[in-house]
Automatic annotation (TrEMBL), chain A:
Membrane topology of the entry: Lipid-anchor
Subcellular location(s) of the protein: Cell projection, Lamellipodium; Cell projection, Ruffle membrane; Cytoplasm; Membrane
Name the UniProt record assigns to this protein: Calcineurin B homologous protein 3
Record lineage: Eukaryota, Metazoa, Chordata, Craniata, Vertebrata
One of the Pfam families matching this protein, by short name: EF-hand_6
SUPFAM superfamilies reported for this sequence: EF-hand
Chief location category: other
Database matches in PANTHER family: CALCINEURIN B HOMOLOGOUS PROTEIN 3
Organism: Oncorhynchus mykiss (Rainbow trout)
Keyword tags: Calcium, Cell membrane, Cell projection, Cytoplasm, Differentiation, Lipoprotein, Membrane, Metal-binding, Myristate, Nucleus, Protein kinase inhibitor
Name of the gene: LOC110526012
EF-hand domain span: 112-147
From TrEMBL, chain B:
Protein name, per record: Sodium/hydrogen exchanger
Biased composition (Basic and acidic residues): 724-737
Residue stretches making up the Cation/H+ exchanger transmembrane domain: 96-479
Keyword terms, alphabetized: Antiport, Cell membrane, Endosome, Ion transport, Membrane, Phosphoprotein, Signal, Sodium, Sodium transport, Transmembrane, Transmembrane helix, Transport
UniProt superkingdom: Eukaryota
Amino acid sequence: MGASQSARTEHEFQDLADRTGFSLEQIGNLNKRFRQLSKNEETLSRQDLASISALDNNPLRAQIINAFFDKRNLRQNEAGTVQVIGFEEFLMVMSHFRPAAMHITEEEREKLRREKLRFVFNMHDTDSDGTITLEEYRRAVEELLSKAGTIGQETAKAIADAAMLEVASTTRGKMEPDEFYEGITFENFLQILKTFDIETRMHVRFLNMDTATMRCGK
Amino acid sequence: MACRTCLWLLGTTFFTCTVRLVVEGTEVGATQGSQPEPGVVGSNHSQAGGGHGSSISGIQIVTFKWHHVEAPYLIALWILVAGVSKMVVELNHSLTSVIPESALLILIGWILGGIIYGADKMQTFTLTPTVFFFYLLPQVILDAGYFMPNKLFFSNMGAILVYAVIGTCWNAATVGLGLWGCWLGGAMGDIDIGLLQFLLFGSLIAAVDPVAVIAVFEEVHVNEVLFIMVFGESLLNDGVTVVLFNVFDAFVSLGGAEIDAVEIIKGIISFFVVAFGGSLVGIIFALLISLLTRCTKNIQIIEPGFIFILGYLSYLTAEMLSLSAILSIVFCGICCQKYINANMDERSVTTVRYVMKVFANGSETIIFVFLGISAIDPAVWVWNTGFILLTLLFIFVFRFIGVFLLTWILNKYRLVPLEFIDQVVMSYGGLRGAVAYGLVAMLDENKFKEKNLMVSTTLIVVYFTVMLQGITMKPLVTWLKVKRAAVTELTLAEKIQNRTFDHMLVAIEDISGQIGHNYMRDKWHNFEERWLCWFLMKPSARKSRDYIFNIFHQLNLKDAMSYVKEGERRGSLAFVRNETKADVDFNKKFRASFSEIMPDIMADNMGPDHVPLSSILQDIVPSVCLVMHEQDLTMRESEDFNAHHLLQQHLYRGRKQHRHRYSRSHLETNRDENEVQEIFQRTMRSRLESFKSAKMGVAPAKKIQTKHQKKDKPQKMPNGNSSDKSKNHPYGDKDLEFSEGDCGSGDEAAGDLFPMRAYRVEAGIVNPAFMAEMDPMDNMQQIPHVALLPQTLNSFDT
């Protein structure tokens, strides 16, 4: 890379750092990783992400990969997915997992929480209608438990149903006979996870050192 | 009633003392000589030998053979006294909520000690190091290890180790050097002591005591991270304490001149050997236990015994090799819990849990009572204002400084920094206890001229921390608004979310190429699943060990339990009392053709060992009873029923699956009798199968061919159960009508649940149990000091 190019990327990085909140070194590392995954191209496609061998054992593989291409996570207010993403979008998705800064106000913390939980919600809500219906939840639970021993599909379904029951009872309470329980809305989702310490649960430590070379292969 | 137990308590102690005096008085000749009792209560009294050898005039019809039974009798009597003391203490609940039980037990110990001293003019019963370290401490620590929340423990392992090792060394050094400095300055007057002895004293008084921490923190439910920090530290610091104690003891024996760099280096190396060696011994024994439980299918009745024996052996083995015995037994408990819980029969698991708790609680009680008694011994009363007060001051102040310093360093590396208030509680919770006393009692009087002073000081320190800090802990925690432990158990949905988060974080780490905490945990998890579980777990256990499945299994069992309980309460369970009766019932309602099928169902579902179903239920009832009671506390009972009903009504009517037949306003009776029967037998079968599968953890097989060639699915117990409870919903009669129209099979999703209600009314088996309003279940009185459920479910966490 020529000097001019590195100067340009420096400027870009600074811009990205301001927008996503990563530090310059972290962006540098993530950029290297991006290049590695996309085989030095400008954009990343699903196949690139799917080729990471370490993800093979992960039951949430498909969902995570989809999350990267989901427009809702890319701060675009429409539904649907994109085919390829650039480095900026890559960073935007990653920024959901950044830790909170040390001294932020209560409402900023709340906002951060909502953002992070929105990400998880979007992951489950595959048809982008704003609610997690029973079908979607079932599918999510089945996938989640698919790699865990010999839990059959039906048991997974039963578990999903029981979990849904709990959610319905806690969030809706008593319902009129004619009402539907449509699914879990985002507000319900927040309510369920009220006791969770999102700071620890959705936090990946982005190192300032370059660990990509420390791990052989991917 | 209180008076009676008090009198009984006093009575037993009087009895103990007087019996011995009386026996001496009536001795018939024989030699005087001391008869050391084998490690029992440390009696210094000289005993008369058995006087049965001399002349007997005639045949004695009844003889008083005290010496024959003396040793075991006294042991049993003291255990009884300790138990009764605990009973006395627990009489007044408002008192125990203010003053921790341990403090009250020490008080009772003082009273008893006073009585004994008054009777014997010397303290015949004290807490000897042998008894304490060999017979009283191991079970407390094994209990701690077995119920340790592993995931929490290992996530915070780094911080715990820092506090345990560096913190304890800091405490020991500062207290020792501080006292030495003050002695040099003349604050303590003229005592025969040296630097090394001060350091030794510092090292034994520095360690936070696990018994005291459990006793005090049990009543103050602080948040789990805080608790695990203090508790983990108290367990792991034994490695340091043992090393420091032995090293300084050796140094004192060698004398100051022999100490050079080599010795100090040897000391440091011995720390690593002792700590890691001890842990290794524990892990080896954990492997042994797991392997053993894998093969104990045929001797399930004594399965639980192995846990205790091998646990105790791990303690003794480490002690034999001069490694850290506490570390050994802790790691034994920690590492084996998952595998033995999976391998052993449910009843054995319950047995182990309860027996463990009995032993641990009993030991704790005895320890505290004897700590009280041992103080009433003027022989050890040496007062040195400077020494004692300075010790108290130093351990308090230096603990605070140490914790704050270390936390400041740790917070730079932690994901979630420890708050200031948590640090305060952590420093304040550094309680000293019986371990310090045991160590100080082990000192050699010849080498340590001031042993009695040290013993007194240790006792005073223990009383100060346990009583004063114990009493003020709760108000402090409330005043500082420390984050408390979550009272309710996580719901199924939350557990699923937890799992989702875990996997998500691992995936993100993989994608972003970072090596993180989650990556490590995931790698370990994979390794464990592939190799360890294959090696250590029974094949049948391997299948059903996923923790979400276990939660689900518990929920199912719980629902089944409530269903049975409710039925029993109302006095009728139409089909599950015994096969013959059920047969008859069905015959009454159905045509004879149906009864052909029923015996098949019953026969098929005879249960694992061809035990009739009713007795399976009875079997299930006691074994899950204990677990369920705790769940009763945490699950929201009435909301459950509400929720089940909700699901029935609303959830499965997904828009695409809406069927006209299930309209609320339009009632329709099902004309197809065959369908009704098929539904009934399908739901019956699946209900019974889910009982069976709940017991055996096997996916139910599909045996009965239905006319409609439907894919039979196992009935989900919560939903099935709910249909019964739903009768009690405010809808009342309206519901009944609704269910009339609600029969017939239909779409799989919709059809599964409705038939349950359908059969109930349609088939005419009107179970009066479920018609009337149901009162909410009474909450069980929470069993004090036994917090099993959180541990139970947590132990399923990887």
